[in-house]
Amino acid sequence: MLTVVELFCLHRKFLVYNLVMRNLKVKYRRSVLGFFWTLLIPISQSSIYYLVFLKILKVQIEHYVPFILSGVMFWTFFSNTLNEGMESLLNNSSLLTKIPVPLQTFPLVAALSHGINLGLAIPVVAGAMALDGLPLRPAFLMMPLLLGAILVISYSISLVFSLVMVFFRDLRYVLALLLQVWMYGTPVLYNEQMVPESFRWILWANPIGLIFPSIHDVVLRGVIPEFATLGGILGWTIASVLGAQWALKYSLRKGVIEWL
To answer: How far apart are CA 18 and CA 165, in angstroms?
Structure first.
């Protein structure tokens, strides 16, 4: 029986810590700006969206700078985690076939590495709020909880994708298309109030669909999300963990390591 402790490698904390540190060092090695690229890219994307949606298309959303920046930061984390986590087993196949390292270690390392970057980017969102005249209310303390929820969901989905990728290498192209559709089906660039009432169920059917309205509640309105919304986020978090547990157990039974 695969436990949550094993799924999140809590029994191999030292290994995970060292791999995360190695991952971060390798990623920024010989880079002039290093970590700041993780901020500059979402900020530049946010600037483009700001010009297109607010200045050209005249989208009426108050405090659009912190709105778009917070959404893009979290979405960048999600998409990067899925892309890197999906490839992580194949990229470390030589190690996995020689050393008894848990398969789930590498998608987890990818999620934690990007999670650290996202955590360090949250003060940038707070700075954008201050520049736009938004006070930092107590509800902002919900941000780490929302970060934790999207981290667990992202890791769980990336683990499933990494296992599928071993058997179905075309998944990398499928994911590229899926993320494009997924982004526009998630209220990252627009307010959830713009979604017609008859289509609001899409947010509940989307594993991360309720996280972004919650981010906007915290950032723009300074309020804690509704209990039903938090319950939906918790439900998707638990469902993603259970799905990842099942996928990992099934793949191990099918001899996934032999396919690497």
So the answer is: 25
Length of the chain: 260
Q: Which two tokens stand for residue 30?
A: 């010989």
Distance CA 133, CA 23 (A): 37
How confident is residue 37, by pLDDT bands cut at 50, 70 and 90? low
Q: What residues contact 243, with CB distance under 8 A and at least 6 apart?
A: 156, 160
How many Cα atoms are found within 13 Å in the side-chain-facing hemisphere of 97? 12
Return the residue matching tokens 């540190």: 21
Instruction: Indicate whether 161 pLDDT > 90.
Output: yes
Residue 260 tokens read as: 């690497």
Mean pLDDT computed over every residue of the chain: 88
The position carrying tokens 């050209």 is 56
DSSP secondary structure of 38-54: HHHHHHHHHHHHIIIII
As a whole number of Å, the CA-based R_g of the chain is 19
Residue 32 has pLDDT above 60, yes or no: no
